[in-house]
Amino acid sequence: TIAAVKNLIDGLEGGSLKPNAVVIIEAGALAKTAKLRKMFEAARNAVAIACYEDKPEDIRRLAEDMAEAEGLRFEPEALALAVSLLGEDRGISRAELNKLILYAGPKGVSRDSDIISREMVHTCLVDTLSDALDVAAQAALDGAPDRLALALHRSAAAGANAISILRALQWQVGRLSSVQELISGGMSASDAMKRARPPVFFTEQRAFAARLRKWPNPKLARAANDLLEAECAAKSTGAPQREIIERVSFRLAAMAVRH
User: Fold this and answer.
1) Model pTM greater than 0.90?
2) What is the topology classification, in CATH, of domain 129-256?
3) Quick one: pLDDT band at residue 88, thresholds 50, 70, 90?
């Protein structure tokens, strides 16, 4: 809270607190007139650092510049796909693009073409991101918070932005809802899983059936509503999107094991 931050800064300024560590406080978008920002800017022992999230045009420029530095260029479709997959974090985007460039062949390495194709982007970025997002969403709906924490960390490392995690959760909840509706209509769980689009593959069926038992229709409706509220908050409040999405992810994990 503002009061807690003021006590911290006043304690440092007045000498009643002896600093032996660096305290980092993260906030969402703050106007120049925001109390928290003005408090830090006026303090002698604190500093406000503006960190700007990358916009799609920033990611596009970064991708083109990094490719050009290695004598490569993107196909238009490949560049559009890469931009859509990479998030707002510049460090993660750069790491993912380095992986893509290494796959395409950096300068000085023998390669068949100087073009980065859509297939290359799909191989390097889509599979890694999709797998990480699916694992995170499934861990939340399985009620496995430890596995969820690890999956969220890995999805961030793979370059997934907060909204893509939300979309993965919404897709998994929607898939469970569609199968539950078929079961409510009199179909067996095994037949309903086969009728799902896409169908639940044999290797997934045991885990999916366990989720069906944990998530009856009323709970799925509450989960869908929580995800919608989280999306609205992430896009309108100015609070850090990742914190909002991770919070609702853990709330779903708690709901999964609650009867």
Assistant:
1) no
2) Zinc Finger, Delta Prime; domain 3 (1.20.272)
3) confident
The rounded distance, in Å, linking the Cα atoms of 16 and 45 is: 13
- Mean pLDDT (the chain) is 88
Nearest CA to 125 out of 81, 59, 185, 171 is that of 81
- Helix 56-69 to helix 90-104 angle (10° resolution) is 40
Q: Give exposure, 206-222, as e/b (b: 16+ Cβ within 10 Å).
A: eebeebbebbeeebbee
Q: Which two tokens stand for residue 234?
A: 């992430």
What mean pLDDT is predicted for residues 102-126? Answer: 87
Q: Tens of pLDDT along 124-142?
A: 876 667 778 888 999 999 9
Q: Looking at residue 126, what is its pLDDT?
A: 62
Residue 71 Ramachandran class (φ > 0 left, ψ -120 to 50 alpha, else beta): left
- Residue 65, SS3? helix
Query: Which residue has better confidence, 13 or 28?
Result: 13
Predicted local distance difference test score (pLDDT) of residue 115 = 95
| Residue in the structure block whose two tokens are 């939340």 | 140
User: φ, ψ for residue 141 (rounded to 5)?
Assistant: -75, -15
Helices and strands of the chain, counted as H and E runs: 13, 2
Burial 16-45 (b: 16+ CB within 10 A, else e): eeeeeeeeeeeeeeeeeebeeeebbeebee
Distance CA 16, CA 34 (A): 26
Domain boundaries, the chain: 2-42, 56-116, 129-256
> Could you tell me which residues are beta bridge partners of residue 73?
115
- The secondary element (H helix, E strand) that includes residue 198 is none
The whole-number pLDDT of residue 236 equals 87
